[in-house]
Amino acid sequence: MTDVLVLGGAGVDTIVRVPELPLPFADSYPVDTGVHTRAGQTGDFVALGLAALGLDVHHLDLIGDDPEGDLVRALHRERGIALTALPQPAGTKRAVNLVGPDGRRLSLYDTSRARPGDRFPDDVLRPLAKAARHVHVTITQPCAEALPLLRETGVPLSTDLHDWDGENPYHEPYALAADVVFLSATALTDPERTMRRTAERGRARIVVATAGAEGAYLLADGELTHVPPMTPPAPVVDSNGAGDAFAAAFLYGRLAGETPERCARYGAAAGAYACTVPATRTDAIGRDGLLGEGAVTA
C-alpha cells in the first residue's frame, strides 16, 4: 500500500524577486538576486512535504519530454518519491512567480501546457488509487476528469482550491468531490459562509481555510474553530508553498489518526516553516521538526 497518491500539480517555477508588489510599470528592472528556475509546483510540494514526514508517496501527472520535465523527474529521483510521468506533448507545466520583499507571491501560470483531451488512463490511475490509503487531488488539468473514477474506488480524497473565491465554477467539481477541502481565505469575503456551503453541498466532513499570519479556520463536523498561527522558526522570506506544506502536514496527522484540531496544528507548524524557506529551494519540515514545534500541545 502507498500512503498517499498525489494527482497532478507537477511542474517548474521561475522565481523572480521584485522590489514591491504590485510591481509598478517600468521598461525594465534590475534583478540583483538572479532569476531562478527550479522544479516544484503544488503537487510536487505536497508530495515532498508528505515524504519528508516519513510517508510513502506516489505522484502521478502528465509531464513533457523537455528541460522542465527533466527537472521534475530529477527532483523526485533525488527525494526518493515514486513518480509516474505520463507523456504530455504540450510540455511540462510552468509558472513565473514574482516574490515581494515581504514574501508575498504573484504567480503567472502558463495554461498552454495542457490540452482539452488530456486524461489519466483508467488502467494507470485505478490501480494506483486502489493501492493508496489516501489520494490528494490538485486542481490542475486534467484532474477533474479523474474525480468520478476516484470516487468509485472509495479511497478518501482531499484537494486544495487555493485562492478560490467561492464562486468560480472551475473549482466546484473538486470542492464537491473531496472528503477534506483546503483553500485560502485570500479571496473570500466571508470564509465561514464559503466553508459551510462547501460542506453542505459536497462530501467534505472537513474544510480548512488558511489565512496566513492570522492562522486558519477549521470546519469539522459542523463546528468552526480558529487555529492560531505558529511562530516561524526563522525570518519569513517567502510564502510560496506554505499552503501545500499545511495540507501535507494535516494529511500526515489525519493518516496517523489524530483529531482534526491536532491535524490543523500540524498544518500551521509546517506552513510557518515553509515561509522561512526561499522559493529557490524545496525544503520541507521533517517529522522531528514538526513534532518539536509545539503542534502537539493543546
TrEMBL record:
Keyword Protease (UniProt): no
This protein's UniProt keywords: Kinase, Transferase
Molecular functions per Gene Ontology: kinase activity
Ranges of residues in domain Carbohydrate kinase PfkB: 183-282
Protein name: Adenosine kinase
